[in-house]
Amino acid sequence: MRSDAVEQSVQAALILSSHCSTRLRVTLSYRAADPLAVRMVFPGEYSLDEPSAPSAADEVVWVFARQLLADGLDLPTGLGDVHIRPSRGPHTMIELRAPEGVALLRFEAGDLRGFLADSYRCVPAREEGRHLDADRALAELLG
Which phi and psi (to 5°) does residue 53 adopt? Predict the structure, then answer.
């Protein structure tokens, strides 16, 4: 039986310098209603916004292509704000770029592969078009 959504909490390391990192929980989510996208959510305390900004207390949400995540597990990939690449050992690096700065996160590749496998059970690869609702997407875009 297929589910319409997948959500998985995983451990990541936020790389602060070449000798320092901190661990944090990241929630990965995928919805059949938005079949091309993956959401990555982490605590607002790790936001690059100014601490006094109201959004700094909220969760930080990044949305990017599921295919980008899949490709980045095996080869360096990414344009713009999100870059993903395999790293030494069983790790994958995700680099998030914003006007406020850059965040580099290290994940266990197995956790990301497991999440992707679950998302493919929800919507198989290359079948995303069957789940797209163009009218709804246009309505959301136009607000």
Answer: -65, 140
